[in-house]
Amino acid sequence: MALDKVGTQQEFSFTYANALNAGELITETLQVNRQAGRCLWSRGQDTGCWLTSDVTSVRFSTRKGDPSMEFLSAGHKRLVQGRAFEGWLRRHSPVVLALLSILCNALSMTVLFLSLLVHFLMEVFPVRSQADDVWQFEMTQGPNSNALGAAAVTAFLALLSALVAGWWLGSFRCRCCGMSGFSQDSILAARRLSEESAARWAFFRPLGGGCLALIVAWCIFVIVLCPIAYGLSFKNECHSGSCQAARALTKLPAVCGVAGCSCGTVSDLMCKESNAENDQWCRNVKLPLCQAQGDTGTTSGVLGPLLVALCGATGLLVILSIVWLMNAYCMAAVVLAKPPESPESPDSADTGTGTELYHKFTVSLRSAHGDRANSGQIIFTLGAEEDPQAVFDAVMPLDGGVSPAGHLLPFVHPGFEMDASSTGVPTVLDAEGEGAEPDQPWY
């Protein structure tokens, strides 16, 4: 606020909260002695003193925010912003936790693992790679062994997740199946879904429990099917006579693992002498899923069960996705139906930046040698109720200083209707009549 003039002494003061230290107030004071032509500015331990005769221009802009941020370093500003974010989290933590619980829960994990299971079961069927990126199955090859292993592991994880999701929904409450945890409403820090959400619709809990029970059974089927399909996809083929050609070529007794003579992995590694008993080698050959009509070859016979597993997992995924959407709606409805919390106490309030209107002044000074290009600047802030024209009249030299328009600038208190001269549009008041660039507008 501006104090009354005492003789030629004029004083302006502005008090605001310190964003860096919560609960602390900062008083910014500007004292002007018109007779001596001297200005003294202070802000805590920071002070500045200059002569009005050295003032070349005064710029101001009306801003909305925290005036203490104008004097903080980049590191301190990041610290204040971090505190503001922590305060926002504290105020909105119930809503944030509710949203996280809707997205991240046992039912969501079951949907994720079941989606991965469908993906790996699809990868079991061999695909022909083409240059034009056409996706085409090649059923004359055997099933993908790596995909079978991944599908078995994923089915096991989906099985565990479905059991936890059934407990969480309150659908699995078995007391006689040897798992006492299903009869408890809380395990360690985990709790069941609230009755408000789980029992919002009478059919929701039986529907979710039935779907999860089918998923458990189907995962067990896939876990059993994958190793069986892997074993049936290979056939052991043995060949003999490879060492006879080696004996005919060298005219010497053939040695296993030498000159194309193969007697099996162990005999080849030990370099045993070939004879009629070990003159053969065997290998596992992957059997195709399908064969052309009229082909007398043997197929693995696992095509049908693998297709059944894929189609069943896909159907269960669709049903479970619908259950997940219904559960998300029920949980969101409960969160939105709760009345807003009472205002927080001052101790738990945000420590972020304040929001108020204020004026930022920039006073340009010429150097000691009169070189305006190397002049300095003094920056200070005053309350929005201060008249910028009064500040201009106080800090400018007695012999100069008119506004660029040649007349006094009108000023209206920000609490009332404001014209263009008091709504944040920067204004330059230059004692030497030079049109310096105004501050960038900031809203």
Your description of this structure?
By secondary structure, the protein is of the alpha+beta class. The chain has nine helices and 14 strands. The strands form five sheets. Strands 1-2-3-4 form a four-stranded antiparallel sheet, with helices on one face. A four-stranded antiparallel sheet has the order 13-12-5-14, with helices on one face. Helix 1 crosses helix 8 and helix 3 runs antiparallel to helix 5. The longest helix is centred in the C-terminal third of the chain and has 35 residues. The radius of gyration is 41 Å and the shape is elongated. The N terminus and C terminus are likely disordered.
Could you give the topology of this structure?
Blueprint: E1 9-17, E2 25-33, E3 38-43, E4 46-51, E5 55-65, H1 74-103, H2 106-124, E6 127-128, E7 136-137, H3 145-169, E8 186-187, E9 190-191, H4 195-198, H5 204-232, E10 234-240, H6 242-250, H7 265-270, E11 280-286, H8 303-337, E12 356-365, E13 376-383, H9 388-395, E14 427-430
Helix pairs in contact: 1-8, 2-3, 2-8, 3-5, 5-8
Jot down its keywords.
443 residues, 14 strands, four-stranded antiparallel sheet, elongated, disordered C terminus, single chain, 9 helices
Q: Number of DSSP strands?
A: 14
Task: Tell me the distance between the termini.
Answer: 23 Å
- The neighbouring-strand order within the major sheet is 1-2-3-4
Query: Structural class, please?
Result: alpha+beta
Order of helices and strands: EEEEEHHEEHEEHHEHHEHEEHE
**Shape label:** elongated
Mean pLDDT: 75
Q: Stretches where pLDDT falls below 50 for ≥5 residues? A: 1-6, 342-353, 401-443
User: What portion of residues is helical?
Assistant: 25-40%
What percent strand?
Answer: 15-25%
Number of alpha- plus pi-helical segments:
9
Radius of gyration: 41 Å
Largest sheet: 4 strands, antiparallel
